[in-house]
Structures are given as structure tokens and as C-alpha cells.
Amino acid sequence: MPSHRSMRLLETAVLVLLAGCQQCVSADSDILAPPEVSQHNGTMYAVCKMRPSTALPAGLPKVYGQVLLKQDYPHGKLQVRLRFSGFPTEGNPEPRAVHIHQYGDLSQGCDSTGGHYNPHGVHHPNHPGDFGNFEPQEGKINTLIESEATLFGEFSVIGRAVVVHEKRDDLGRGGDAGSLLHGNAGRRLGCCIIGIASPNLWNMYHKQYNRRLRRY
């Protein structure tokens, strides 16, 4: 039978081990946290540098920009800032679809990013990275949205791709198989791979965005 003193020592050792794991696993979750979470006060940041597809046919817009992502650990809502340029500035602006795709593989331009990231095997537009449609203003898209995607755990989108499409997403209402797969959003104009980032870009553009809102 262990002595009272040995039991106390064992309890102390367990508490020390648990305290050392707080940076790896939260008290109310088994979601693993990358070290950047503790470095940035419980928040994860990511960035995706948008470039035109290398397989882009002539005559289609060449899209550049950034996707900035921010999420509080472990269950915060993912915030996504889209900053794109290169769309036509004349005529009526055509809404463009933006989605997260399965693979962070740009070896064949945006065509090698696979289909929509669909970890739960559901129809479009219920994939976690189905961001929707965005209408350019003066050739640019600059907006902030929330998403069902996550930067944490087994369904993390880190290392996957964001794709800007040629057309409007029909949101699964097109009445055909393509509508339930990808919303018939057309060819892939630009793409990028999501990677872990510091807070610097997010904070810089967040301040600019708020200043712009105050002016209006």
C-alpha cells in the first residue's frame, strides 16, 4: 500500500505533466495546437499569396492578391480577409466564386489543386471552404468573411489551396452533377497555398480596412 507521502508526490508529478501540456492541448479540447498559438496569445494566423494560374487561357483576368486567415484557439470562428486585384474595370462586374481546394499542389497551375476540400463527403455548397461569390469593385475584391473551415485539428486547411474562379457559383442550385460538386464556377483564374503566418499582415490590413470603413 503506497504511503500518503508517496501518493502526494505522484499527484504533484501528474500536475506538473499536465501543466506542461497546456501549450499542446487545451483544457476543454483534444485539438492539437501548433506552437504559434501560444506565441500569438491564443490565436492562429495564416496567409495565402494569390497568383494567376500558369495554365490560364488568353483573355481571362490575371488575379493577384492575398488571403489572410485568423482563428482563436480552439473553437473560434475562422475569419478570412480576401484581397484580390486584376479583374476587369469596365462594364458590369461579374461576381467570382472563391473556394478552398483539396491539394496545395501548384505543379500544373491551379488545375492540380484537386476538387473542393470536402472532408465530410457532402454536396456543394456545404463544404467548409465554400466561401461564396464576390463582386469586384474597380477591379478589386476586398472583403472580410467568416468561414466554417478551421486552422486546427484533423480538418485543418493549412497546406491546402484557395482558388478564385472565372464565374459565379450557382450554390448547388444548377440542377446537375457539376452544381453539387463545384457550383459550375468555371475555370480557375488564380490560386495559392495556405501557410502559417505571423500576425503582421493581418494587423496591418485590418487597420487599413477599419480606416476605410470609418471614412464611409
Set out the fold topology.
Elements lengths: L3 H17 L14 H5 L3 E10 L11 E9 L5 E8 L10 E6 L5 E4 L19 E5 L5 E8 L13 E5 L11 H6 L5 E6 L1 E3 L2 H16 L1
Antiparallel strand pairs: 1-2, 1-9, 1-10, 2-3, 3-7, 4-6, 4-8, 8-9
Summed up, the domain count is: 1
Q: How far is the N terminus from the C terminus? A: 74 Å
Shape: globular
Low-confidence stretches: 12-28
Report Rg: 21 Å
In CATH terms, what is the architecture?
Answer: Sandwich
- The first-level CATH class is given as Mainly Beta
The CATH topology:
Immunoglobulin-like
Number of strands: 10
Order of helices and strands: HHEEEEEEEEHEEH
What integer is the average pLDDT? 88
Beta-strand share of residues: 25-35%
The structural class is alpha+beta
* Fraction of residues in helix: 10-25%
Biggest pleated-sheet summary: 9 strands, antiparallel
CATH superfamily caption? Superoxide dismutase, copper/zinc binding domain
Number of contiguous helices: 4
How would you characterize the overall build of this protein?
This protein has 216 residues and is an alpha+beta fold. It has one domain (34-215): Superoxide dismutase, copper/zinc binding domain (Immunoglobulin-like). It contains four helices and ten strands. It has helices at 4-20, 35-39, 177-182, 200-215; strands spanning 43-52, 64-72, 78-85, 96-101, 107-110, 130-134, 140-147, 161-165, 188-193, 195-197. Strands 1, 2, 3, 4, 6, 7, 8, 9 and 10 form a nine-stranded antiparallel β-sheet that branches. A hairpin with a 5-residue loop joins strand 2 and strand 3. The chain is globular, with a radius of gyration of 21 Å. Residues 12-28 have low confidence and may be disordered.
